[in-house]
Amino acid sequence: MENEGERVAAALASVHGVDFISVYTFVDLLSRIAILILLFLVGLETSLVEMKRIGKTALVVAVIGIVVPMGLG
């Protein structure tokens, strides 16, 4: 029985492997465009007044969320 690496290599080396790569590339491009649109829409909904109000608390939570995991290893 073949292992998974050999199966993937055989699939990509076959005639249909090129189709698989082109579909993967298309899906990757489509997902990147969707993320850009989502981030744009989130930016439109953002309130600067609310960001100023909760900015310090959000900064503290963000710093703790980075420093603590790094400290724990």
Question: Would you give an account of this structure?
Answer:
The chain has one domain. It has helices spanning 4-13, 15-45, 48-72. The model has no long low-confidence stretch (mean pLDDT 84). It has 73 residues and is an all-alpha fold. The longest helix is centred in the middle third of the chain and has 31 residues, at 15-45.
List its salient traits.
elongated, 3 helices, mainly alpha, 73 residues
Query: Number of helix segments?
Result: 3
Report the principal-axis shape: elongated
**How are helices and strands ordered from N to C?**
HHH
Strand elements, count: 0
Count of all domains: 1
Helix-strand makeup class = mainly alpha
Give the mean pLDDT: 84
Largest sheet: none
- N- to C-terminal separation? 40 Å
Question: C-alpha Rg, in Å?
Answer: 22 Å
Question: Could you list the spans in which at least 5 consecutive residues all have pLDDT below 50?
Answer: none
DSSP helix fraction:
over 70%
The proportion of residues in beta strands is under 5%
